[in-house]
Write a structure and sequence with these properties.
This protein is an alpha/beta fold. The chain is built from 20 helices and 9 strands. It folds into 2 domains: about 350 residues, no CATH class; about 100 residues, STAS domain (Transcription Regulator spoIIAA). The chain starts with a helix and ends in a 10-residue tail after the last strand.
């Protein structure tokens, strides 16, 4: 009986994974095409990238349930390379990008994602939600003009219907992903009643394509000269693409970890993304990384394992080869409705409620990362957020440097409180009364630490000032690593280091 229950339980999850993959594949179609046009390449270059990266990252990556493919964050970087050098140089840059990402995984650099503060993560999520929302507004255009009149009302009506079904259908049953039901229902209504509204084919044609049908990805060595000149051209692009791809992938991984209460493997994700991009470059794809929108569709539809990502890639391939006419009739309104729900569920609404409950610096970081993500790109936004957070942390720690002063006979005892590092060195030096101190000074680091080169230089400067006045300074209660740091710097730090067990009697 237990074996039978386990079989049906496993089969139910397999069904959920496959149906979730089908939903994701439908949502991938306009995204892959749109990002291909942003990068200035043929739609098939984006579709092939979504298939190959989606499949390999799902199999080899470090986060089951996460969806990867061609993304806008990378496309905006690629466009200048394609415009200046041609698409073949893009393929070469994608291969080199993958190599850099695999090196990051080999040297276990993925673990550094833990140093990204929570306010930066909130800003990242909110910024991407806004970016996804703004990208969907392009679907309300016909050519370069915005929809008006009945076409606009029809589009909005089906978008709202899609969202209502997605939110309401789970109250009836959760056996089928509500997003898939919504897409199917809207497509059926449009086809049966012959509503005039934009479809996937209309979108592709408006973007300059001629339809969705295509061929298998074919192995293709980038046709660029193998020379230092070529390397000089693609190297900057590859480094930027690798950095943006890993940042977006690892932060999406962290987000899914929080949503699912499980743990992915950042280093394995670097290796998986890198290998997927190398293969993509050799098969005429534009490269890519994790996609937060499609990943959230997958998670919300019940996809938790690798099968959902594999199914999405295989469904997308089958659409391309065998079912293009069916995919072309899917209304854009249904896909826009799905993405609007993703926006709603991705935006960290809780971040709006904590504005009066957390430090102002954290609020500033959330807003900064959100705005910079929308105006520039993810890598710059995260970099700004991390730098500001680090500076705020350093400033707060620097304010905690203080001393407790006592006299023991003819010795003056300074008990340092707080860490001594680059931001606190000025405050540290101002705590000493050189003019009025006696000839023998003891500086006690029992409640402090000497952290960096700036701290060493501050101690050396202090010692030099006392020496010029003919006074002696002795350091006590240094930790083992601090004593080693000072011993290694004996050539330029001229102070006495007493036995670490030395204590000052106050009798």
């Amino acid at each position: 009986m237990t074996a039978i229950l386990n079989f049906f339980s496993d089969w139910k999850q397999v069904k959920n994974e496959i149906l979730s993959g089908l939903t994701v594949a439908l949502a991938l179609v306009p995204e892959a095409v749109a990002f291909a046009f942003v990068a200035g390449v043929h739609p098939l270059v984006g579709i092939h990238a979504a298939i190959i990266i989606g499949l390999l990252a799902a199999i080899l990556g470090g986060r089951p349930g996460m969806i990867s493919g061609a993304t806008g964050a990378l496309a905006v970087v690629m466009v200048s390379l394609v415009a200046d050098q041609g698409v073949e140089y893009l393929f070469g840059a994608v291969v080199l990008m993958g190599i850099f990402q695999m090196l990051a995984g080999t040297f276990k650099l993925g673990k550094f994602v833990r140093f990204i503060p929570h306010p930066v993560m909130l800003g990242f999520v909110n910024g991407l939600a806004i970016v996804i929302f703004l990208s969907q507004l392009e679907m309300f255009k016909v050519g370069e003009s915005w929809m008006t009149g009945m076409p606009l009302f029809t589009m909005l009506g089906f978008v709202i219907l899609t969202m209502v079904v997605i939110f309401g259908f789970p109250k009836i049953t959760k056996s089928i992903p509500s997003s898939l039901v919504a897409i199917g229902l809207v497509t059926g209504l449009v086809a049966f009643f012959e509503f005039e509204t934009s479809t996937v084919k209309d979108f592709i044609v408006n973007m300059g394509g001629d339809g969705f049908a295509g061929t298998w990805p074919i192995f293709h060595i980038p046709m660029v000269p193998f020379s230092l000149e070529t390397l000089n051209i693609i190297l900057p692009y590859s480094l930027i693409l690798a950095a943006i791809g890993l940042i977006e992938s690892l932060m999406t991984l962290t987000l899914i970890d929080e949503v699912t209460e499980t743990h992915g493997n950042p280093n394995r994700e670097c290796l998986g993304q890198g290998f997927a991009n190398i293969v993509t470059g050799f098969f005429g794809g534009m490269g890519g990384c994790a996609m937060i929108g499609q990943s959230m569709i997958n998670i919300n539809s019940g996809g938790r394992g690798r099968l959902s990502g594999i199914a999405a890639a295989l469904f997308l391939l089958s659409f391309l080869l065998f079912a293009a006419p069916l995919i072309e009739i899917v209304p854009l309104a249904a896909l826009v409705g799905v993405m609007f729900v993703v926006v709603f569920k991705t935006f960290a609404w809780g971040s709006l409620r904590v504005f009066n409950k957390v430090p102002r610096a954290d609020i500033f970081v959330i807003i900064l990362v959100t705005v910079v993500t929308v105006l520039t790109d993810l890598a710059i936004a995260v970099g700004c957020g991390v730098i500001v957070s680090a500076l705020v942390f350093a400033w707060q720690k620097a304010q905690r440097i203080d001393v407790e002063i006592s006299l023991v006979g003819k010795k003056k005892h300074y008990a340092v409180q707080g860490p001594l590092f680059f931001a606190s060195t000025t405050g540290f030096q101002n705590l000493f009364d050189l003019a009025n101190d006696p000839d023998d000074i003891v500086v006690d680091f029992k409640n402090s630490r000497v952290c960096d080169h700036s701290a060493l230089e501050a101690i050396n400067t202090l010692a030099s000032r006392y020496r010029k006045k003919g006074k002696k300074i002795t350091l006590i209660h240094l930790s083992v690593d601090c004593r080693q740091l000072l011993n290694d710097a004996r050539d330029f730090v001229e102070v006495n280091i007493d036995d670490p067990e030395y204590t000052v009697s106050k009798d």
